Amino acid sequence: MNDEATQVGPEQENYLPNSAGADNGESNQECTDIIRTLPDGFSVCDSQSANWVIRRVMEARAYGKRVTEWAAAEVARAKNDEARLLYIFGGQLKAWATEEIQRLGGRRKSVCLPAGSLGCRREPVRLVIDDDSAVINWAQCACPKAIATIIKLNKTTVIEHFKTTGEIPDSGAHIEPERDYFSIR
Q1: What is the pLDDT of residue 159?
Q2: Which of 15, 38, 88, 180 could form a disulfide with 42 if both were Cys (CB 3.0 to 4.6 A apart)?
Q3: How far, in Å, CA of 69 to CA of 54, rounded?
């Protein structure tokens, strides 16, 4: 391939990460690597070349989805493994750690091992709220300062108001001009 095929031209520059607001974690080098794999002088100039790029985009999306699903399955597997190991050995680990701490003089609260540490800590008494509604009813009389009123903007209503009246807030909002939206599906 010649040097011109490996250069990122102005038309590709708009789509490089870190330019014009793009920020998807890739480096410009990775984009240049993709461009290097293209035939010399490749550009989208007809339905066949446009279809080729769209196919590559769709393959990348599908790959990303498969990786995400795989990762979720691996996380679930790891959590299940942890739960099973703790179910089988949790009591034994606690007993061993307690005994080891006592054997070491009882001043330490944990035992450090190459793979991690085991520790025993006393947790103070704490209140756990199980039903927010019931506690709100109680707090209105017994602890009124625990009740908070939250002001939240209903954006849909503001947008409908703008569409109906044309009125916009003095600050905190702006009008974007009509534009064409490009998508690949």
Answers
A1: 93
A2: 38
A3: 22
Query: Rg of the chain over CA atoms, in angstroms?
Result: 30
Instruction: Report pLDDT for 26.
Output: 54
How many C-beta atoms surround the C-beta of residue 31 within 10 A? 19
pLDDT in tens, 75-98: 999 999 999 999 999 999 999 999
Is residue 89 domain-shared with residue 155, that is, in the same domain? no
Task: Say which amino acid occupies 74.
Answer: E
Position 57 in a domain: yes
What is the rounded distance in angstroms from the CA atom of residue 91 to the CA atom of residue 98?
11
Residue 26's identity, in one-letter code, is E
